[in-house]
């Protein structure tokens, strides 16, 4: 399978959301990482056919997705960041309705819905009206909807927004378990959402691709530039003069800070292996939050 974005430009009026952006995907899980405004949702909405590019083309198996739209849509499951739900439907009614739109067999759909409701801890909510669901529940309903007929391409935009830490892990595990022979794209600014599960990461900002590689590769690129610095709490301000601090922990009155810096800082410190959080901060710096 091959999904390709070729030299895509997308503007909103004068704002260039994607600027000659190219990327191609085969089977695997891809983390699309970038701060707010990077262009992630624009890219995902283009891939879901919710938007059309101003320039460039998107190909699935070599064919333009817009000229083969009906056929292409059969292969994809989408969870857009800006949600449209039907407030008066119950969770189950909504999922059945979406299954009907996808022309799924009714019995198969019902079985699949049972399976997804239980995996996503929504069984108790199946007869709840969507308008009465919490943000985290709605998010899981939307994820269930994207997975209904086991699509080959799964496009998830900020899938864990509004979820608590336990639900985040459940969603991440679910995504990991789906991965065989699929193209899965997860757009997020939250590193743990894709950590461990993404076979490759694409870092994007200002509508451009900044970096692409496996997590291992991206972490190795920072070799020699990440330090674990140990200081008393009152020296934290001084550490930040030597670079970016990507994490801190306090134990027995000593603060351990992860510092990204070109040189070894003049404190009690040791070089450590970079994590994806370090990578994120390294490339996005001040934009990171
Ligand atoms: P991300 O998902 O990475 O946060 P988006 O793709 O949503 O980024 O946005 C990329 C850029 O395009 C941002 O600067 C954003 O403000 C702008 N943008 C997105 N949608 C619209 C829109 N409908 N109208 C105008 N500007 C938009
Ligand atoms: Mg977005």
Protein described:
The protein is of the alpha/beta class and 289 residues long. It is built from 9 helices and 14 strands. The strands form 3 sheets. Strands 6-7-8-3-9-10 form a 6-stranded mixed sheet, sandwiched between helices. Strand 1 and strand 2 form a beta hairpin. The model has no long low-confidence stretch (mean pLDDT 93).
Write the layout of secondary structure elements.
Layout (H helix, E strand, L loop, with lengths): L2 E10 L2 E11 L2 E6 L6 H8 L7 E6 L2 E2 L4 H7 E4 L11 H11 L4 H14 L15 H13 L5 E5 L7 H14 L4 E6 L11 E6 L2 E6 L1 H6 L5 E6 L4 H4 L4 E8 L2 E7 L7 E4 L4 H9 L5
Parallel strand pairs: 3-8, 3-9, 6-7, 7-8
Antiparallel strand pairs: 1-2, 1-4, 4-5, 9-10, 11-13, 11-14, 12-13
Helix pairs in contact: 3-4
The structure holds adenosine-5'-diphosphate and magnesium ion.
The site of adenosine-5'-diphosphate has 11 residues, from strand 2 and helix 1.
